[in-house]
UniProtKB/TrEMBL annotation:
Record-given protein name: G5 domain-containing protein
Source organism of the structure: Clostridium fungisolvens
Residue ranges of domain G5 in the record: 380-459
Keyword field contains Transcription: no
UniProt keyword Cell membrane, yes or no: no
Length: 492
């Protein structure tokens, strides 16, 4: 029995010891947990070990300290950076300070302070002791509104317009000046290069090469040199024109003189002559308005467009836009004219040759001359002539209206009669003087205008009767007056 008592004592002692150990262990764990908690709490407002932003170590920093460090490292430093554009032998610097550069420092400092704060107590403690490997990226942005001005600065220094060769012809003698190639910055490519290379990398200096292109002159000497002689000519007379109309013909002729058309170019008469205004020197003269002749600014310039049309057709250059007058003109056969009106009717033609065309136009002795110069060999021995056949003729009627305000026997036109026509024009091609082709060009209609004549019905008033008496003859003598006779006239 004594042995059993001894065993129970021993068991109790073991249990008591075990309980003591457990109690001590639990007490120690609680102390450790409290210690860890206290240690982690010290980092509540600090960034954990190993947390970086753009490779800048922010370990142990408060948010305010992190913001200041990032501002000093990036926001302030980036303003000292420059982007260099090389263009030919010049360097152009774009200061980042002009771009209002910005990093999202506040946002990333907040993210840094929050990094790991959502973990368990012991995970946090582990990061505090051993650190982490977290590198947060900063975002960089800037105001690109200043870039355009920078690009324009480069363009102003680098761009150089090409110099066209110039051709002049005097008395058939041809002279041509030299041309010069220009250069131009490719603004679209430069803009992409600049914006692609603007970045927030503090240590990196960026250098870009400006894309520069050659600009060829539109009128190179090598092309103008193909013009070696006269390929057509035409002239019309304005001998009966009054001073205003004569001035308009001369002015319009001057506007189209010395025009050069490269292959594929289109000539516009309205574009060359411009708007007909008194401010530009045009005078009032007769123009067609419907079926009437009225005064209008620029009257007479259609004679120049008609002369140009005839010269162009003689050079084998077809029209892309052309209209005939509403009524026949005094300076051109029907079907062979070209009328224009600012804003609605134009005369245009395209240079379909593989060599340039030079237009010479001038007036002399009340004649307007238009000459076309080009490449003689390029004409292939061909010449051209424009003709027109009358398909129909429309005779006008004349109606007479009695008018008591006009003396009997006199007449006056209200509207002059004009004969109408329908004509077909065609271009004949000659090869070394022999006809080889005939081409229909246009069918034109010219309206007839019925005449209206006023016939006078007003009778002449006889003069008063005068009686004479003498002492020698008591019989009174009556003198009879002879009425005046009206003559027939017209108001033209």
């Amino acid at each position: 029995m004594s042995n059993e008592v001894g065993k129970n004592k021993t068991l109790k002692m073991v249990v008591a010891g075990t309980v003591a150990v457990v109690v001590i262990g639990l007490s120690g764990a609680g102390v450790y947990a409290m210690s860890v908690k206290n240690q982690v709490a010290k980092w509540d407002n600090k960034i954990y070990q190993g947390v970086k932003v753009n490779d800048v170590d922010l370990s142990g920093k408060t948010k305010e300290e992190a913001v200041k460090l990032l501002e000093d490292s990036f926001s302030n430093t980036i303003k000292q950076k420059k982007l260099i554009v090389k263009a030919l032998d010049q360097n152009f610097e774009l200061d980042y300070s002009n771009l209002n550069p910005q990093f999202n420092v506040q946002e990333m400092a907040q993210k840094a302070i929050e990094e790991g704060k959502n973990l368990s107590l012991f995970q946090k403690n582990n990061i505090i002791k051993n650190g982490t490997n977290k590198n947060l990226p900063l975002e960089f942005k800037y105001d690109d509104s200043k870039i355009k001005a920078f690009e324009q600065q480069i363009e102003s220094k680098i761009n150089q317009d090409p110099v066209n060769a110039k051709i002049s012809i005097s008395g058939g003698n041809i002279s041509i000046t030299d041309d010069q190639t220009g250069r131009k910055v490719n603004t679209e490519q430069l803009d992409k290069l600049i914006k692609t290379n603007i970045n927030g990398k503090i240590e990196q200096q960026t250098v870009v090469q400006a894309p520069i292109e050659e600009v060829k002159p539109k009128y190179p000497k090598s092309e103008l040199a193909k013009i070696d002689g006269k390929i057509s000519t035409f002239s019309t007379s304005f001998a009966t024109s009054n001073p205003g109309r004569s001035a308009n013909v001369t002015l319009a002729s001057n506007f189209i003189n010395a025009k050069v058309l490269m292959p594929g170019d289109t000539f516009s008469y309205n574009e060359a002559v411009g708007e007909r205004t008194t401010a530009r020197g045009f005078k009032d003269a007769a123009i067609f308005v419907g079926d009437k002749v009225e005064q209008g600014v620029g009257g007479g310039i259609c004679q120049v467009s008609t002369t140009l049309y005839r010269a162009a057709m003689r050079a084998g250059i077809r029209s892309t836009e052309r209209s005939n007058h509403s009524m026949p003109t005094s300076y051109s056969d029907v079907g062979l004219d070209a009328t224009v009106y600012w804003g609605s009717l134009d005369y245009k033609f395209k240079n379909t040759y593989n060599f340039p065309i030079y237009i010479e136009s001038y007036t002399s002795n009340k004649n307007v001359y238009v000459n076309f110069y080009g490449n003689i060999a390029g004409m292939g021995g061909k010449t051209y002539e424009l003709f027109a056949d009358t398909l129909a003729k429309y005779d006008p009627t004349i109606s007479k209206v009695e008018d008591s305000s006009i003396m009997e026997g006199q007449t006056q036109w209200d509207k002059h009669p004009v004969t109408g026509y329908k004509v077909q024009s065609y271009l004949v091609t000659y090869q070394n003087g022999k006809e080889i082709a005939r081409e229909n060009i246009a069918t034109d209609n010219y309206q007839k205008v019925n005449g209206v004549m006023r016939v006078g019905t007003k009778k002449a008033t006889p003069p008063p009767v005068t009686q004479t008496q003498t002492t020698q003859d008591p019989a009174a003598t009556q003198a009879t007056a002879t009425p005046t006779v009206a003559t027939t006239g017209t108001n033209q």
